[in-house]
Amino acid sequence: MKNLVDKYKDNYVQIYFEDYDSFFVSKIIAEDDECILTQDIDRAGFNDGYQLLNKQLIKSINFNTDYIKYIQCVSDEIAKSGTMTADYLFKNNPLAIDKDNLFSSTLNCLYKEQRLCRLYTDKEKNYIIEGIISEITDKKVIAKYLNEENMIRIEEIVHIDIESNNLRLDYLFDKKYNRRHNL
User: For residue 92, is pLDDT > 80?
Assistant: First the structure.
């Protein structure tokens, strides 16, 4: 998979993960040899954060489907109203990254800008940490979520969810009640 940004430039795509039937809708905004960076959109047509994905996780990419046409239609109507994000709750600021090394520049951006994220390992290990990155070394990332800190080894990270609306809503709830939710 190469030149995905050029191939799908300015178009929404459906990205399917390996061994999963579900997909997410996004625009591919950057790529390097190992990763893609997407700006996601939810089914209501609102911008829904970013994802950094190892290309090996991708099963297929579809575009010009009926569902994409639906999302584009909803998104166009929202754009006419002047709102492309859930602005009543969140700002959706662009990421300041180096497109030549997406993985490390994305981690550094998340750390410097104190962005909320969820870090995933491969599905065999099925380990997830979430929060705001408080430390990065050559070997590990530590993320703080409320009063707890969790560590993940850098070489195990295959997917990063960045400021999705669900992640931000969960954090708002947990912060307000100073506990992890079990919804």
Answer: no
